[in-house]
UniProtKB/TrEMBL annotation, chains A, B:
<dbReference type="GO" id="GO:0006433">
    <property type="term" value="P:prolyl-tRNA aminoacylation"/>
</dbReference>
<dbReference type="InterPro" id="IPR004154">
    <property type="entry name" value="Anticodon-bd"/>
</dbReference>
<dbReference type="InterPro" id="IPR004500">
    <property type="entry name" value="Pro-tRNA-synth_IIa_bac-type"/>
</dbReference>
<dbReference type="InterPro" id="IPR002316">
    <property type="entry name" value="Pro-tRNA-ligase_IIa"/>
</dbReference>
<dbReference type="InterPro" id="IPR007214">
    <property type="entry name" value="YbaK/aa-tRNA-synth-assoc-dom"/>
</dbReference>
<dbReference type="InterPro" id="IPR044140">
    <property type="entry name" value="ProRS_anticodon_short"/>
</dbReference>
<dbReference type="InterPro" id="IPR036754">
    <property type="entry name" value="YbaK/aa-tRNA-synt-asso_dom_sf"/>
</dbReference>
<comment type="function">
    <text>Catalyzes the attachment of proline to tRNA(Pro) in a two-step reaction: proline is first activated by ATP to form Pro-AMP and then transferred to the acceptor end of tRNA(Pro). As ProRS can inadvertently accommodate and process non-cognate amino acids such as alanine and cysteine, to avoid such errors it has two additional distinct editing activities against alanine. One activity is designated as 'pretransfer' editing and involves the tRNA(Pro)-independent hydrolysis of activated Ala-AMP.</text>
</comment>
<keyword id="KW-0067">ATP-binding</keyword>
<dbReference type="GO" id="GO:0005524">
    <property type="term" value="F:ATP binding"/>
</dbReference>
<keyword id="KW-0436">Ligase</keyword>
<dbReference type="InterPro" id="IPR023717">
    <property type="entry name" value="Pro-tRNA-Synthase_IIa_type1"/>
</dbReference>
<protein>
    <recommendedName>
        <fullName>Proline--tRNA ligase</fullName>
        <ecNumber>6.1.1.15</ecNumber>
    </recommendedName>
</protein>
<feature type="domain" description="Aminoacyl-transfer RNA synthetases class-II family profile">
    <location>
        <begin position="40"/>
        <end position="487"/>
    </location>
</feature>
<dbReference type="InterPro" id="IPR002314">
    <property type="entry name" value="aa-tRNA-synt_IIb"/>
</dbReference>
<keyword id="KW-0648">Protein biosynthesis</keyword>
<dbReference type="Pfam" id="PF03129">
    <property type="entry name" value="HGTP_anticodon"/>
</dbReference>
Amino acid sequence: MSTRLSQLFVRTLRDDPVDAEVASHRLLVRAGYIRRQAPGVFAWLPLGLRVRRKIENIIREELEAFGAQEVHFPALLPREPYEQSGRWTKYGDGIFRLQDRKGADYLLAPTHEEVFTLLVKDLYSSYKDLPLSLYQIQDKYRDEARPRAGLLRGREFTMKDSYSFDYTDAGLDLSYQQHRDAYERIFTRLGLEYVIVKADSGLMGGARSEEFLHPTLVGEDTFVRSAGGYAANVEAFTTVAPDAVPFDGLPAAEVHDTPDTPTIDTLVAVANEVHTDRGYTAADTLKNVVLALTDPEGNRSLVVVGLPGDRGVDMKRAEVAFSPNEVEAANEGDFARNPGLVKGYIGPWSAAGAVLGEASSTKIRYVLDPRVSEGTVWITGANEQGKHVFGLVAGRDFVSDGIVEVAEVTVGDLAPDGSGPVELARGMEIGHVFQLGRFFAEALGLKVLDENGKLVTVTMGSYGIGVTRIMAVLAEANNDEKGLIWPDNVAPFDVHVIAAGKDEVVYEVAESLVAGLENAGQDVLFDDRPKVSPGVKFGDAELLGVPTIVIVGRSAVDGIVELWDRRTGEREQLSVADLITRVGSKA
Amino acid sequence: MSTRLSQLFVRTLRDDPVDAEVASHRLLVRAGYIRRQAPGVFAWLPLGLRVRRKIENIIREELEAFGAQEVHFPALLPREPYEQSGRWTKYGDGIFRLQDRKGADYLLAPTHEEVFTLLVKDLYSSYKDLPLSLYQIQDKYRDEARPRAGLLRGREFTMKDSYSFDYTDAGLDLSYQQHRDAYERIFTRLGLEYVIVKADSGLMGGARSEEFLHPTLVGEDTFVRSAGGYAANVEAFTTVAPDAVPFDGLPAAEVHDTPDTPTIDTLVAVANEVHTDRGYTAADTLKNVVLALTDPEGNRSLVVVGLPGDRGVDMKRAEVAFSPNEVEAANEGDFARNPGLVKGYIGPWSAAGAVLGEASSTKIRYVLDPRVSEGTVWITGANEQGKHVFGLVAGRDFVSDGIVEVAEVTVGDLAPDGSGPVELARGMEIGHVFQLGRFFAEALGLKVLDENGKLVTVTMGSYGIGVTRIMAVLAEANNDEKGLIWPDNVAPFDVHVIAAGKDEVVYEVAESLVAGLENAGQDVLFDDRPKVSPGVKFGDAELLGVPTIVIVGRSAVDGIVELWDRRTGEREQLSVADLITRVGSKA
């Protein structure tokens, strides 16, 4: 096949679009692959559609290789199933809702767990029907607060979403692994670097969950990884807690007047005045942070988190730790209503032996960072204005209502699997595999009869790949200052032939070259524009990013053309016949 | 390729779905091709998706054959372009509207004229860029008042919509013809009978417009056709008006007391008492019907239509004739406000020589059916209670404000092209080609520079095919009491192989047959279900509708299998090798 550039619906732009923050957005618009329609909503031009189809087909092939079957759901779905799962409410402002002419509620589905569950319930009833993996490639909608970076975070985007159905946990493990393996094959075929990180399962609940992150500076996620192979997103990172140590013989805690020390810095300074030989740092202090939680019914409550003074609370980790509550810092009103919380001097202990928060009308939960293990010794607030307590021993002088993972992760923290210290990196989520477990099947009543004729609830997995985002990530990873450089298997065309010159022989040779390449099974883009200069044609070729370019120029008269590798920039002169052989053998 | 029925996500149903009114809906649900999600909204199962893809690919091939290029727009679009074209309001309740979290208005696009226009405006600026034909295959949304008949009229459905761009009228004619020809090829390849009818261009405005109707009893449209080749939808039918005849020497009109004759029937009876020798029929009376029009700004006005008494007003034709007004019968309030309109006795004339409607506060327009031509003589109302006028002559005693085509079309009416009397038939619209002209380009400012460097407004065409509706129409046209019978080129599989029996040899032969057919390029559905009886398997095969079935049964031990033509019911015994040759040669 071949397409003439003179006929192709494309127009390259010299200038970057004003709203483009990242290279992929800039280049995909400039090269005529996509066009913005509304914030986070794009139209696909012929070049963009070609690349997208190739990505989709690679995904299809790898999913069908293990038996997943394609179906297609509407984007417009009724409220009821999402009401049954609780997600109609949980999604908050993040989805598009609408009503039909009769006032019935609908949504534009952001994911389809509910209706896949109902479909399987509708068709299947026996363990013999399982395992089952279904998928669709479909346009999804999310009303993002801040759509950004072109296709990287849109409000309409294309996803491949799969769902697996099993009746045993072992079955789910296998289905999960099949998807995970397929994802590895897909990203490998796409030439996309990826890291599989342990993930928080977010809204979905469920057991095992991993994200495929593509490391990139434009990524939205921070993840941690160790040289020894550990990887997790920050929300899923777990702290290595020190072993408990005996506290027999440790001196009793002592309260000191420490006026004007409302911060960790001032406290450390004062502490080093009190005991000039200890060399205290922030890590020796126990910081107590008050958080306000709002549960799904809208009830607000407070919790105090104790953590080493050299760490802050990571609010994303806190959201996960306290899920399904929403989390924010306590405000002035919270403090006013709880006079027992003495701002700047909060501790798990007081000179009067009062339990934290006892002075307030409601008992406030007190939870600890894992580092505050039994036998560790701390300087912390005394719950009295201007006073701190020194030598307070965890497990002896105070206890907690639980351990939580909310502290910031920092470079050098130890990976929980013993693989050494971690570093922090930026990544873009390109895939996600979840073990949903029985949540949706319970909510929607999906049960099958097992071998013993007993009704058992089905266990599910959910697996997503962002098709349009992958296109952006590929563009982000494959470009230079001149334009895009597509990997061979997703390039919009196999070869870009340029007729460079005005002589008739140039066009004659180019035409026969194009015909020869077509016969060799190549899909050719032919820049046949008669009145465009070679320089402009070269620039357009560099911008469009077909990886293999052939220039038919002055030497055409001698049957010689030039093979130009867009990625390396290398150019080589070849006879037409040799070129067809060389390029054709790639098919 | 092959697919094992034991693994395929499908479940056939014995019973018809309760909401299914038509065969296609009933069978597509029972055979496991689609499943209802909400009124007029369906999910596609693997079998349905396969058929749909084949239809889409036939459409793609025929459009690309003349150079149309595929793009893809979002379904979610901002209000502004539709506001500029006036369609945001015009669509009324017929579309889904929604707001994003910032309160900005969006719609789920029912068609995409506006944004295609803007896209071309964005990219192109010269006559050299034209002609251009772009298309997309995309999910569309319409908030139908009465979604019905499964896929025949859904609220979410898939359409191929194309748009052509030219800068001369001749260019538009050519683009229109290219689409029209492609549509003929598409429907021919799909084996779908079609009639091309002249159409009203509805909301769109514009010049030439034709519909492709598939004649079917479940069709929603009535169309007329003559044996001589004329075809039009009822809205587009034009009446053959009698020539004007001289009225010199005709007697003067005379008013008669005709109490208690408020209807045409009673009037005809009384008229035949007044003149016992004339043999009057309803066709001799002039009926005057009062209609209320509401313009796009919401202003209501009345119009009186005069037409032969043997015809009623066809409200669909009236909608077109009075477009863009909405039309309904005048109500009691309208009559009360206009005492000059004497119900049952309305005429274009009164004994006092009063002009129709003169007694009312506003002048009311009076329009005529084309049959009321100059010199025709009528019995009609005298605008006085209980009085009619006889011998009233059109052109002598009354005139009109215009001619309108609103009368019912009936069997035997003459086709306007002289091809004889028409019959009426039911059809389903499967395609539509429109000359939009410059309406959208004007509204949205799409101009290009012509050969003389002058800015000219682009002229456009719009062309639609209902992909999912075509699937339903195909199912409607290809079934029997046992199930579906797909045409070869859209069947979900090429061959359906049934292992009929429990003997090991049956499965051995079936497996080798499937492998052989795969090698011969066939896409095989293999009913390998071990515990299902041959009878059930045969019934499922008939229901699923793959046109070529192979039964591997008792004779398998002798290497003999049975080829079963689903359409004719013929069965033939063949050796495995002969069967592979026979069936494989179809590829």
